[in-house]
Amino acid sequence: MKTEIIQHLTDSFEDHAQEADGVEYWLARDVQHLLGYTKWDNFLRVISKAKTACEVSGHDVRDHFADVGKMVTLGSGSQREIDDLMLTRFACYLIAQNGDPGKQEIAFAQTYFAIQTRRAELIEQRLLEAERLVARRKLTETEKELSSVIYEQTGGNQDFGVIRSKGDKALFGRSTQDMKARWKVPDNRPLADFAPTIILKAKDFATEITIFNAREHAMRTERQISAEHEHNNAAVRATLLDRGIRPEALKPAEDIKKVERRLAADERKSLENPDRLPE
Fold it and tell me: What are the residue boundaries of the structural domains of the chain, listed by start?
């Protein structure tokens, strides 16, 4: 396929993209012509196959193929409504995959939407990684604050590690060492560095409550604060279990240090090549 044709098709597909409530979409009547289909009925058969593929892949068809009406102007100047569909990028990809491979527009669209879908997945992955990194840093700061509160109110915080371990036992129903073994965490690394985001936020929430109550009730012994911390972690565990989440059964997340290095590298690459996507 010639470069000028590829550029033309790229511009055409991007020009027809629209957005509603932050969601990018294309109208099926536009995609029909972009893919080289002259008859709507023929294109509907391709859409039907794409819907089946969507369902088989485990996605809700309604999330990607939404029925809408479209006003068109007739030769007489009057208008009437015709059926149309709002298609997500994923829907367009599935339509292209089920289209006539002999059409040059279909061949282009198969690659175009595959790349666009992959691009969205990369962005989503980076956002999730960034969210986890922020949660890990937040937990570190919250635990430092708890350590300071213990020192200020009891005169010492040498047992902070023990208090944190008791919190882990209450949250996971297992000791910190048991969870490290389960998640294959090196002995010299914190368990939290391998915890998924929801666990980081759960631990942070329980610790914030401990800090608040330790100050509010002027707790003067490490024993009181330790008991409070256990109670709060147990309460958070109960909430998670009630929502079908068993903390000790979750899979470990990637080493947070690797995530941090990767995000930092991506940021450097973005500064060096502002128009280049991370690989």
Answer: 3-100, 125-272
Mean pLDDT of 86-109: 86
Q: Where are the alpha helices (DSSP H) in the chain?
A: 3-15, 28-34, 40-56, 89-97, 104-154, 160-172, 176-183, 197-216, 222-242, 256-272
Percent of the chain with pLDDT over 90: 58
φ, ψ of residue 157 in degrees (nearest 5) = -140, 30
Residue type for 101, please? P
Supply the angle between the helices 197-216 and 104-154 in degrees, to the nearest 10: 30
Q: Is residue 167 within 8 Å of residue 206, measured between CB atoms? A: yes
pLDDT at 82: 78
Task: Report the sign of the C-alpha dihedral through residues 242, 248, 251, 254, in that order.
Answer: positive
Cα of first residue to Cα of last residue in the chain, in angstroms, is: 25
Cα angle 184, 123, 274; round to 5: 120
